[in-house]
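ARCHIVE CARD
Drawer: 12
Card no.: 0347
Subject: one protein chain, sequence and derived structure
Cross-reference: see card 0346
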Amino acid sequence: MEKLNRCAMENVKNHLVVQMSICEKAEKKAKEEGMTTECIEMHHDMFCLYAGFLAQLD
């Protein structure tokens, strides 16, 4: 990872943060609208995956 362009890394990190925010909002909306547990869990799991990817880049 040391040889990767710093700007590229920051862009990817920012993208992951944005995606995490989208998943968080989607999970909340899914709960409010009474969507299926599977749908709610999907948004939650995607958030967790993005968070894991972000942690690996630090």
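Annotation on reverse: Residues 6-32 form the longest helix (27 residues). Residues 11 and 17 are 10 Å apart (CA to CA).
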